[in-house]
Amino acid sequence: MVALQTILTPILDGAIVSSFAGAIYALLSSRDKTGGMIDPISNIVLGCSVTGCLQVLGKLLLPRLFGKLSLNKADLTPVELSRNRGKFEEMVMSLVLMSISSAFMYSIFESTDWAWWKDQNLMYTGPSEPPSTTVNYFYSVTVGTWITSGFCCRFIEEKNRDWLLMYTHHALTIALICGSYVISMERVGCIILFLHQVSDIVLNICQLCHYLGWDADHFPLHIPVAEALFAVNILSWIYTRLYILPTVCTVSVFTVMHDNEYCGDYSQGRYFCDLLGSFLCALQVMHVWWLYEMLSVAYKILSGVGADAAARSYLDEKKEKDQPKEKSQ
After folding, report:
1. What angle do CA 300, 207, 303 make, to 5 degrees?
2. Per-residue pLDDT tens for 78-115?
3. Which residues contact 119 (CB under 8 A, 6 or more apart)?
4. Which of 136, 144, 155, 172 could make a disulfide contact with 48, Cβ separation 3.0–4.6 Å?
5. Distances (CA, A) of 13 to 82, 164, 178, 255
6. What residues form the membrane-spanning segments (predicted)?
């Protein structure tokens, strides 16, 4: 596994850098088409700055806001408790960022009466119809946000058993978002982002409840808050990532793009489209794998293990699989 990670990491780094470069080039081109109204470089820097500032403010303010908040302390060492508090604060900031972005995307979809979702032929705008100013701003700021999150995933976040899979998913998602803009299917990119963030919001809330110890064993009156949210998380995961994503986005990339004359030369148009479609298929495989892991935790909960014990069992299993890596190094 260590050898595989050593080989794939620089490849994924290159894929992310290439995606960013392609997106910046496309954004610069769109600025020319819209009469210079869009300044993508400034907006990308703005996205990086806003994300970075919010993370710094979170580190400064959240300990004061949640300093007296009692996290789940069951059988935790001081080091584990401190790490959980740090993860809790990171998830709160992530939840804030995703909620703001999702609300903005929701307003875009609402302004179009959700037409992109209803008619897949509208997914492709073509070079003759440049993206709107709103979508351009959204894309350029989002690229900046993903630069920051990609940097954190690569260099700052703890590398556990799932790190390589998470980083691969991160790289593929960035490539899809940037690549969809390059081939004038930015509406697909907006939907991909929206679906990911909506399901991640539910997942983050579920994880926050776990760190707070809001399960049936610890919550007043033994109300299974964490367990109920975990069930909602599984349902939202299936609906957004395993149903809507393939039926709306993957079908659009493989069919709508192929039906347009703009593709012309297969090597310049449809080849890149097929590449993005393969990335979407790869994401689906990862989503199925994570669903399997979530169902495994759900099975342990239904077997009477309890939400906290099931989650800790999963984390302990990850640690055990990480230990041989550390020894081999």
Report:
1. 10
2. 666 777 777 777 788 888 888 888 898 899 899 888 88
3. none
4. 144
5. 31, 12, 15, 30
6. 7-28, 91-109, 137-156, 163-183, 238-257, 269-291
Token digits for 72?
């789940």
Find where tokens 């020319």 sit: 32
Which residues neighbour 199 within 8 Å (Cβ) at sequence distance 6 or greater?
233, 236, 237, 240, 241
Q: What digits encode the pLDDT tens for the residues 121-173?
A: 788 776 667 777 778 777 777 776 776 777 776 776 666 667 778 888 888 88
Q: With contact defined as beta carbons under 8 Å apart, do 48 and 144 qualify?
A: yes
Q: What Å distances lie between residue 300 and 154, 167, 214, 231, 317, CA to CA?
A: 32, 27, 17, 13, 14
**How many CA atoms does the CB half-sphere of 63 hold within 13 Å?**
8
User: What confidence score (pLDDT) does residue 319 get?
Assistant: 45
The candidate with the shortest Cα–Cα distance to 206, out of 235, 239, 177, 229, is 229
Q: What is the DSSP string of 237-263?
A: HHHIIIIIIIIIIIHIIIIIGGGSGGG
Hey, is 171 helix, strand or coil? helix
Q: Judge residue 233's burial from the number of C-beta atoms within 10 Å of its C-beta, 0-12 exposed, 13-18 middle, 19 or more buried.
A: buried
